[in-house]
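notes to self, project folder thing:

trying the whole complex as one job this time. last attempt i did each chain seperately and stitching them together was a nightmare. two parts in total, labels are on each line so i dont mix them up again. if this works i'll redo the older ones the same way
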Amino acid sequence: MSTIPIHQLHEACRRALLALDVDERSASALAHATVEAERVGNSAVGLAHLFDYLDGFRTGRIDRRPRVVVESPAPTMITADAGGGIAQYAFGRALPDLLHRTREYGMAALWIRNSFTVGELGYYPRTLANEGLIAVAMANSPALMSIGGSSSRILGTNPIAYGYPQPGRLPLVIDQASSATAFVNIRKAAERQESIPRGWALDHDGRPTEDAAAAVDGALLPFGSHRGGNIALLIELLATLAGGSFSIGAPPFDSGSEGPGIGAFLLALDPTRLGSGDRAQRWLQRITAEHGVRLPALELETLPDQVDVDDELVDRLNRYANPD
Amino acid sequence: MSTIPIHQLHEACRRALLALDVDERSASALAHATVEAERVGNSAVGLAHLFDYLDGFRTGRIDRRPRVVVESPAPTMITADAGGGIAQYAFGRALPDLLHRTREYGMAALWIRNSFTVGELGYYPRTLANEGLIAVAMANSPALMSIGGSSSRILGTNPIAYGYPQPGRLPLVIDQASSATAFVNIRKAAERQESIPRGWALDHDGRPTEDAAAAVDGALLPFGSHRGGNIALLIELLATLAGGSFSIGAPPFDSGSEGPGIGAFLLALDPTRLGSGDRAQRWLQRITAEHGVRLPALELETLPDQVDVDDELVDRLNRYANPD
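result (full assembly):
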């Protein structure tokens, strides 16, 4: 592990992307989102995940110079066609309009379509919560998960995230997948020849399994059984509403030459219009201080100016930046 | 069991309410919602639940002639203070404005506050989906459930429901609590001296328990562990945003003389503005027909014109209507 100042990590990410001829604006947006994920401690979608993007740019699954089209089909609705590029850049392009419309109308939503998988989903609502807005984000992703007893992979691990501003401190940001576990945990268990808990996955024939190798060929299960599946279904329906690929037809993010082209939905609300003040913030303080509620998301007091990253990842990153 | 035409059940409900001197408009709204719950097969919040309302009106927990105040603090935001009355009536009062604003701006939301518990939550998004809108509803309720490892009851069973229009057939409506089980199931198990599954509840000291009697004095747990708890927290934050009581301070719905005064959030979107047509409907058909996904909510083909109800409940209802 090395401790690296965030501006240095940002620059290393950006240079690696530019070395692949990625457009400056996409490179900056993705470097920023990658560093933010590390700062909030969500390293699974931080630097380690950047290599999925780098491989995606290299192989053409992600467009290096996408033509992003932002439109507004209704006063509170914004759509951003990511043009086969990254969601973070499309988001940045639509953000000023989303902020403006949310403040003007009280509420607005952005749909991103035709993008690579979203990375750290919490990034989007956190950005809005830092502007004083409440935000809920949902995204779909290539199919890995069964719902409704199907033996097929129907939905992605479809994450949901939300951000709630807390004046004077970091916003509350929750970010979670709809699957009982991440696919990588099943793959790791299979490599170690370990069993997996019941409720994580089905085998290829749709039977519940504790055999990790069988689960790799099968399908994940939603968290919390059919109720989690119903949440994942809502995410699928809203995330694809403006034309994002359904999970079931979306190409994988980590192989082939075609990108997933999935969708994301981002709802923003301006709480100041409802005049609720710091009522919820006081309630959050009360349930944690007086009732012992532990929410890890509330325990983040500041975002660090330096982060610990794996030396091997830094070396890989620098090899991308300096290929010779 | 008796089979009763729905207009007859509606009239019996309405007369029982009027006999308690409930305002005609509240009585009609509640009779309608009660019959609808029976028609969609959700009888736990149908006729059986009406007696909780009747008792609430009788004892003053629900205002019989509430002063409902509907306001619009922003173009897409509507608040309805239910005045201590039922949520269904406040909803009906705000509905025309909600429909109008959703169609005008693409999206709008209604917050109900200061109301009795919402009854069948699916009723609200179903009403909007029948108008061609996508809707998501969330409500809180008096605290029964622990989150974040607390030994206290922090949240209600905070339900979420959504409706998705399907032209030519009934809308898809999903309606579920955020708790692993309903409190009534724990009470029934305690009466029968049966154990309950792990993951349903904590005892009074916050320890996981399989002892139903200990759970009755303890707290429910969310579905799907902390992920379900995070969904319940989002529901709490959004449902109370316009001033509804937090679950933790809300008086119970079934005892005392003060109503819960909780909140509900209802988001409506006009999908026609996004031009997605019947894409999602075809996808739903495909995952059910080709991939064996079973969604009970999709299997409801028509709403019946008559329903089967328990004779004892009908007798009780008629005694309310004809108290002499």
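what i see at first glance: The radius of gyration of chain A is 20 Å.
need to look closer tmrw
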